Amino acid sequence: xxxxxxxxxxxxxxxxxxxxxxxxxxxxxxxxxxxxxxxxxxxxxxxxxxxxxxxxxxxxxxxxxxxxxxxxxxxxxxxxxxxxxxxxxxxxxxxxxxxxxxxxxxxxxxxxxxxxxxxxxxxxxxxxxxxxxxxxxxxxxxxxxxxxxxxxxxxxxxxxxxxxxxxxxxxxxxxxxxxxxxxxxxxxxxxxxxxxxxxxxxxxxxxxxxxxxxxxxxxxxxxxxxxxxxxxxxxxxxxxxxxxxxxxxxxxxxxxxxxxxxxxxxxxxxxxxxxxxxxxxxxxxxxxxxxxxxxxxxxxxxxxxxxxxxxxxxxxxxxxxxxxxxxxxxxxxxxxxxxxxxxxxxxxxxxxxxxxxxxxxxxxxxxxxxxxxxxxxxxxxxxxxxxxxxxxxxxxxxxxxxxxxxxxxxxxxxxxxxxxxxxxxxxxxxxxxxxxxxxxxxxxxxxxxxxxxxxxxxxxxxxxxxxxxxxxxxxxxxxxxxxxxxxxxxxxxxxxxxxxxxxxxxxxxxxxxxxxxxxxxxxxxxxxxxxxxxxxxxxxxxxxxxxxxxxxxxxxxxxxxxxxxxxxxxxx
Length: 572
Ligand code: NAD
Fold this sequence. Notes:
There is one protein chain. This protein has helices spanning 39-42, 113-131, 135-151, 153-163, 168-185, 188-191, 226-237, 252-264, 278-286, 299-311, 334-346, 369-377, 397-412, 448-451, 467-476, 490-499, 537-543; strands at 2-6, 10-14, 79-81, 84-86, 93-97, 104-109, 196-200, 203-211, 214-218, 241-245, 271-273, 290-296, 315-319, 324-328, 356-362, 416-420, 438-441, 458-464, 479-480, 482-486, 504-507, 523-524, 545-553. With 572 residues, the protein is an alpha/beta fold. α3 (135-151) runs antiparallel to α5, α3 packs across α8 and α4 packs antiparallel against α8 (252-264). It starts with a strand and ends in a 19-residue tail after the last strand. Nicotinamide-adenine-dinucleotide binds at residues 218-223, 245, 247-248, 277-278, 281, 296-298, 300-301, 304, 319-322, 353, 453, 455, 481, 520, 522, 526. Nicotinamide-adenine-dinucleotide binds next to α9 and α10.
């Protein structure tokens, strides 16, 4: 059993294991040389004898990997065009490794130029018929899609655990939060209704919502099902066609969604999936047929995509990075705060854009941090398929190294490492990308661990004296995705709500992500374009539709006047 250490000599047990049904073929373990902690040595590179070309998706609704066993002969990831999976003719491939073991899972193609063009052409060709399909027919397909996603819920979650690393239970939440967007999209007939008003005698104005044409989605690694499901349902139910690029680090869930969309009855070309990294993104940004881009990911890519896409005349919605703070007031329910923050800071190994990564401890609450460290150290860090795992590995060896170096920088800058997960690894998975829960206390705003998004299981804690100080500190941060306050006072919460700049506020709720009947409303540097275009809800429908207004006059009397009216009407 591995142990994490925290300041003052407290030990943390971590890593329970349990046997589970093995459906993927069991294979020999890694050679001894792979036990090295060196990044390159931890990873098995794809070679001709390891990989087999794509034939059909390896999993089904009832048969899918449920362990981190090495796959004997991993299979290439296909792409999806004209409602068919196809083997890529790529000459560049991106190896995808299980973050818990660094075993090879698949190779993801850098789609060729011909494949990228074929996907856009397919979406363009499908658009005229799809836009003329009645909204009720599109709704029926969406109902079927929702049912199929539910049937394949475990299969989708297993793909996420294998490729992304999060625990199976958490991966089920990833699927559900996307599924809820698809469920809400079933309300399209209501959401797409226009308005009509008689604006003058015999004259009325009507508004219509029309689809844009071909749209594109570019997705991050941390929610392999949820983010594609933020895009697929709303883009398509509104009558657009879609070319989607999943993260090259974990495209498996998106491929399963493509299969389910085809089964649900989406016509050929309405949804296409291509792969790759920057080259693919540039193609989407420059393709003249593409009218709108949905992006979720980090600031570097997102700001570039927003600028280049906008300069090319496209609509762009872009959700970016975050640094989410919680203000902790002495009058709060302490036990609730301890549990809520432990889950919100370390769940998904901190790789959530709404992870609660920063605490602002008001007054005496800083004395509670050792108790928080006790809760955090009780979390089980293990392979995501293991029974009882609370958090899994981080996505890559590079990410592990980056997170650890940010923890070290905090130490060098004078902060206190209250709980240190740097030397943690579970016994069963020595080659994975592990960082145990880490708490850094006495952090100051100039420190690198505060100014950068860490995106790992690391909680940074700052101290202030008053609520006003907490609000000022949170508002001084350039990000504004989400924030939370823990208090029992209604007036304190209301003061916080009125004065805070972050776009999503939790009152005694650590991760206040709105359900799809609302919209995901990040603010400041966490969303490009000043937050004008937000994902899902009515604003999501707005993003994917062009408004058209028609003013018509059907006069009840003959036109008898001989004189034209040249002044603007005054309605007097
Ligand atoms: P990322 O920006 O590295 O990658 C996102 C997508 O952009 C991928 O498909 C990738 O291929 C592409 N990409 C990456 N770099 C690029 C570049 N220079 N040029 C063109 N394309 C590029 O993000 P990630 O690491 O996959 O995801 C984590 C980030 O996403 C975090 O910053 C997190 O906060 C953010 N995120 C935000 C939200 C939100 O709603 N605000 C939700 C999830 C994740």
